[in-house]
């Protein structure tokens, strides 16, 4: 699979952009565990053009993470184009447009998945960004706004015609948020549409090697994007890659291996962020790193309440 001139090999695995999760510390851990391509947390175009600290900080990219895309969201064309030009200066491999975020405060403003209710604006905005930047532009979106508008086959064709180099499709409508089951049949229809010439990346409910293999085989997608299942479980990429290449399921990492990864993740997070913020944002990972470990409830409670780094260690 290729995105523009970026060659990613067969069956590439993508780390999904997730707010307050896919920072450089987590991205580097996922890269170590076999992720092929990743994205920044999604960045507000308004925040970026106004030089907001939090938005600008999200442009930080380190060589160990590459290849990487910077993902932007917004509801107005000019700020999105300006933000794309700023993001391009950070020298990512791609610029990604978020037409998929279902969060109310974003979608109801017409950004993220809200753009699915204004297709002319979506296409005009995408075209303007493609024309403005020199880097490959990609899009992440959903299969539709609701059950009455599951129109991703047509939408994907229109987006392709703007000149984007790949599309990622989450198999839920905006109305579903993250509930119910992702509908990969529509993702497959996009991939198998003879008009589609760009790579199609599937996203939604990939929770392990067997599901990943099934989606590649059944729907023919070019790549798979993993989001929530990677949180506190970065080794999922290694497990999937090993199974795709050998047909063999790797054993669950030992508690010691998980502890080493969690400590490495914590160290990287503390390097990148101020102490308390690093710890607060590590909690959602720490709650998953040791999920299923017997007799762990008391220790887990301490991990998720203490602000003492030495106690966490």
Structure commentary:
The chain has 313 residues and is of the alpha/beta class. It folds into two domains: 7-246, Aldolase class I (TIM Barrel), CATH 3.20.20.70; 255-312, no CATH class. It contains 14 helices and eleven strands. It has an eight-stranded parallel barrel, surrounded by six helices. Helix 1 (24-32) packs antiparallel against helix 11 (255-272). It is globular. The protein starts with a strand and ends with a helix. The model has no long low-confidence stretch (mean pLDDT 95).
Highlighted features:
alpha/beta; 2 domains; TIM Barrel; 14 helices; two-stranded antiparallel sheet; 11 strands; 313 residues
Give the topology.
Blueprint: E1 2-3, E2 6-7, E3 13-15, H1 24-32, E4 37-39, E5 43-44, H2 45-49, H3 53-57, E6 68-73, H4 77-89, E7 94-99, H5 104-107, H6 119-132, E8 137-144, H7 152-161, E9 166-173, H8 184-191, E10 200-203, H9 209-219, E11 223-226, H10 236-246, H11 255-272, H12 275-289, H13 297-303, H14 309-312
Parallel strand pairs: 3-4, 3-11, 4-6, 5-6, 6-7, 7-8, 8-9, 9-10, 10-11
Antiparallel strand pairs: 1-2
């Amino acid at each position: 699979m290729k995105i523009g001139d970026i060659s990613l090999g067969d069956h590439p695995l993508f780390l999904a952009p997730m707010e307050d999760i896919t920072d450089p510390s987590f991205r580097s851990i996922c890269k170590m565990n076999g992720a092929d391509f990743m994205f920044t947390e999604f960045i507000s175009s308004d925040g970026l053009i106004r030089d907001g600290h939090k938005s600008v900080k999200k442009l930080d990219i380190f060589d160990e993470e590459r290849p990487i895309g910077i993902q932007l969201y917004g509801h107005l064309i000019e700020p999105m184009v300006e933000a794309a030009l700023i993001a391009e200066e950070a020298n990512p491999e791609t610029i990604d447009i978020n037409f998929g975020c279902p969060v109310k405060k974003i979608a109801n403003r017409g950004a993220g998945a809200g753009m699915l209710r204004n297709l002319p604006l979506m296409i005009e905005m995408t075209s303007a960004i493609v024309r403005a930047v020199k880097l490959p532009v990609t899009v992440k979106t959903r299969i539709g706004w609701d059950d009455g508008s599951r129109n991703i086959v047509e939408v994907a064709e229109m987006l392709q015609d703007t000149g984007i180099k790949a599309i990622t499709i989450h198999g839920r409508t905006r109305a579903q948020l993250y509930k119910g089951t992702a509908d990969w049949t529509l993702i497959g229809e996009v991939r198998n549409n003879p008009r589609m010439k760009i790579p199609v990346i599937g996203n939604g409910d990939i929770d392990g090697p067997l599901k990943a293999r099934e989606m590649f085989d059944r729907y023919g997608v070019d790549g798979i994007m993993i989001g929530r299942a990677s949180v506190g479980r970065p080794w999922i990429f290694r497990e999937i890659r090993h199974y795709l290449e050998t047909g063999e399921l790797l054993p669950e990492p030992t508690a010691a291996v998980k502890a080493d990864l969690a400590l490495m993740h914590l160290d990287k997070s503390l390097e990148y962020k101020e102490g308390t913020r690093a710890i607060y944002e590590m909690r959602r990972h720490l709650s998953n790193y040791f999920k299923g470990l017997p007799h762990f409830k008391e220790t887990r409670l301490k991990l998720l309440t203490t602000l003492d780094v030495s106690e966490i260690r």
